[in-house]
Amino acid sequence: MYLTPDEESMLDGEFGEGVQKAIELIVALGKVYGADGLVDITSAHLSGASYKTIGDGGVRYLEDVSSNSIVAIPSTLNPLGMDRDRWREMHITEKFAKEQLKIIGLYKKMGVKTTCSCTPYLNDNVPSFGDHVAWAESSALSFVNSYIGARTNREGGPGALAAAIVGKTANYGLHITENRAPTVVIEADIDNTIFSHSLLGQAVGMQIGSGIPYYKGISPEIEEVKTMAAAMAASGSVAMFHVEGITPEAGMFDISELEVIHIGKKEMQNAYDVLNTDEDVQLMAFGCPHLTEREIHEMATFLKGKKKKKDIEIWFCTSADIRAKCSEDVKVLEEFGKVLADTCMVVSPIESTFSVTGTNSAKAGNYLPTLCSQKAKCQDFTDLMKVVL
Hints:
Order of helices and strands: HHEEHEHEHHEEHEHEEHEHEHHEEHEH
Mean pLDDT: 97
Helix content: 25-40%
CATH architecture of the largest domain: 2-Layer Sandwich
Low-confidence stretches: none
CATH superfamily of the largest domain: Aconitase, domain 3
Oligomer: single chain
Strand content: 5-15%
Structural class: alpha/beta
Strand order of the largest sheet: 12-11-10-13-14
Largest sheet: 5 strands, parallel
Number of helices: 14
Number of domains: 3
Distance between the termini: 61 Å
Shape: globular
């Protein structure tokens, strides 16, 4: 692996111990994956924000890193395990809240923006086409690779933080043009709804596992792209995809010799069946990935004028920035549940209170059983809400 003189100096400790440890990790990862060198990055997005996911060991690690490190480029953070202001309403313990706030403080000490969302590209971390970045949130990195045309691999939490400190990452994988070529064509026959795109992502992730699908027959907007990206990353390990006529790199590669897979009613039903239980839900949680302004408005429009008739807890999860922009719609949603900021059901300790959760997200449908010990019911928002209306 070739390193520039400045990078060699970082490795030798001339830029301080924090930078030295960070670049040691980046170089080690680069060697594992056959990188030819490092590449400058314009932003980072970090996972490892919830106390539930990193625990006491993660807190100690952040204490160590933050003692001598500052991020070199704009960096944002994934959702927390709780809403910083409404954690008591989420059944969070005092100990959990104390440790969660400590984690936020440690990231803030390093210069990380503590906006805490899995959709930072909707707020204050928006890469440009061709930018190299280091992002660790699986759905977000797939979105920016695909819809924006920025370049990132599926970073782990420590690797993304190290890249943020150095301002560089290893040049391999999806940072290289030829590795961004489609590997399979998906001909999709689905309804034009957000939930259908979530199920489509589930079906494709289940079918191909990994690789880079090229979609024909769909015309998704931002909401459909983000939910589809999230589902493919959760049901498989898809970190990038192309959509004909939509994504910026879709026309750059020859797809004439690729295998074609058709996704229709049978495949969609199979994806639905995998994600659903027949048991009654105790919690309904929406916003995985975080709800956009459009989603909040559509949910509020559907609910306006209706009455909640059954006492089931409901969470609407979004970023603090988006919540602030939707004050009138938020008032409507608050009549039915809690509009929570900078958190989500997957990284919150819901298993202490609930055992069956309903959601309209295939990503959540995959993670609720494994990370939250939940039985999941994954359906369209309007279908789930019929239970309480």
